[in-house]
């Protein structure tokens, strides 16, 4: 969508809506994925990620309404098949590397470095760091609150990586529209974490 925005800038609001909705789906998807492997952790991340997803969907609807109200004609956009074996293999390799790096960092650097790992890993893939954190929590290496905090942190990091890709690949108007939306989602996430987790106990531990 970011690449297409430079070819068809008149459809920027529609592209922004599509990117925002696609990005927002990640939050409930992470909750669902973790529910299959770690229900205790799932209950701890459900509220922050659920609120982030709901905020993204509402902002996407707002962009849709604005795009519809200002529509001046049909826009033709060509799309390629997004599914390929190469993408699946690349995802598998990234997933394995993040799992290994997370465990090594926790073993040799301690759990206090987990936010750094979550932020860096989240830039590449939110799912891998989520499963890594779930495995650490199930091994009793980290607490539920600490694991939940870092999982949400990884999701926020991944969201800003998408924004960075839009900045590098897309139209500047598209970037400005998404910048406001992603900042709102991040602010909502931070406020929700403040009320959901005992951050004082986490950082003073």
What does this structure look like?
The structure is a single chain. It is globular, with a radius of gyration of 18 Å. Helix 3 runs parallel beside helix 7, helix 3 packs antiparallel against helix 8 and helix 7 (144-169) runs antiparallel to helix 8 (172-196). Helix content is 82%, strand content 0%. It has 205 residues and is an all-alpha fold. It contains nine helices and no strands. The mean pLDDT is 82. It has helices at 2-7, 12-37, 39-69, 85-109, 114-124, 126-138, 144-169, 172-196, 199-204. The termini are far apart.
State the main characteristics.
single chain; 205 residues; mainly alpha; 9 helices; 82% helix; 0% strand; globular
Topology readout:
Elements: H1 2-7, H2 12-37, H3 39-69, H4 85-109, H5 114-124, H6 126-138, H7 144-169, H8 172-196, H9 199-204
Helix pairs in contact: 2-3, 2-6, 2-8, 3-7, 3-8, 4-5, 4-6, 5-6, 5-7, 6-7, 7-8
- Low-pLDDT runs of 5+ residues are none
Spell the H/E element sequence: HHHHHHHHH
Structural class: mainly alpha
Largest sheet: none
**Whole-Å distance between the termini?**
44 Å
Number of helices: 9
Characterize the overall form.
globular
The proportion of strand residues reads under 5%
Q: What is the helix content? A: over 70%
Number of strands: 0
Average pLDDT reading: 82
Radius of gyration: 18 Å
